[in-house]
Amino acid sequence: MGVTKELFGKLGGKEVYRYWIENGNGMKAGIIDYGAILTNLIVPGPDGEMQDVVLGYDTPQEYAANSGCFGAVIGPNANRIGKAAFELEGRKCQLAANNGENNLHSHPDLGYHKRIWEAEEGENSLTLRLEDQDGCMGFPGNKKVQVTYTLTGDNGLVLKYGAESDRATIINMTNHAYFNLAGHDKGKIYGHILELKASSYTPTDAGSIPTGQIAPVAGTPFDFLTGKRIGDEIDSDDQQLRMAGGYDHNFVIDGFDGTLREIATVAEPVSGRRMKVYTDLPGVQFYSHNSGETQAGKGGAQYGARSGLCLETQYFPDTPNKPGFPSDVFGPGRKYESTTIYKFC
Fold first, then answer.
1. What pLDDT score does 1 carry?
2. Would you call 164 a catalytic residue per the annotation?
3. Which of 66, 201, 254, 284 is 20 to 30 Å apart from 314, CA to CA?
């Protein structure tokens, strides 16, 4: 139980450390200070069998080349911003166009998933901090950012985010873990049963930028209100699914009021593992790992398309350009604070 530290490797001459948090049930979370990345999440099944349920790599170099952002904390803005620009307080903020004409995950080299964070160990937690300069990546404000991972006695992994800025800016952070509850090396996630407490979602254009519409999921492949296998409708003849190559959409959480609530359940019938997701944010991006060539992962695993699923809690994509979406503007007088929990039962 508690926190232990080990050298994970070196990157650009700098040492990268991995911290292990363990609870009394044998559940363990591995986090590195590069990208505040969740590298491992070892979880018991109903029969006590332990499996690592997040996709990842064995070296810092692989994480540095990781275009899929496996396990990383994304910031200052997760997901997409249309035409890689937004206006704030009368000023145009230009970002990197790194996803066609749009911006994805802030910046491919300077984003928080590519930084080494300062780590501080707690009794059953790890807090990681960094500072970000005004204008970096095009975002206003000098920012102080932190995320704390805590492993609870009832098998919950709690991620608590915080940020302050001396100017109004956009802050929309998330964790980009890819889950496979059968085990990270067990192939496709088609048999996972997903339930989402979301009666609507935000349809997108061909560039995966929300149109601004809040559309009902009823009668569509996006209806996970009562739970269904991810593979059941993922290849349906639906324009939204065709454009994205599967699920890569923001779901609008029912009853959002800024308080922590259960928003999703994932069950894997063969292993018997179940994961509940809680957040105080208005949206969650369900991504079914649609693309990419098969690649080597940790422990000799081979990760092909749809071998993991992401449930990225968030403000909606392109919120800075959509006045009707819940605001992700923070700064003096409005600190960014958010909590997400992945709980295994």
1. 79
2. no
3. 66
Question: In residues, how long is the chain?
Answer: 345
C-beta contacts of 235-244 below 8 A and 24+ residues apart: 240/203, 240/204, 243/204, 243/205, 243/206, 243/208, 244/204, 244/208, 244/290
Is 312 tagged catalytic?
Answer: yes
pLDDT grade, residue 328 (50/70/90)? very high
Q: What percent of the chain has pLDDT over 90?
A: 97
- Is omega for the bond preceding 332 within 30 degrees of 0, making it cis? no
Q: What is the pTM of this model?
A: 0.98
Q: Residues 23-58: pLDDT tens digits?
A: 999 999 999 999 999 999 999 999 999 999 999 999
DSSP-based three-state secondary structure for 114: helix
Q: Both tokens of residue 15?
A: 């040492």
Contact partners, residue 86, CB within 8 Å, separation at least 6: 92, 93, 95, 170, 320, 321
Give the C-alpha separation, 140 to 259, whole Å. 27
Strands 169-170 and 50-52: unpaired
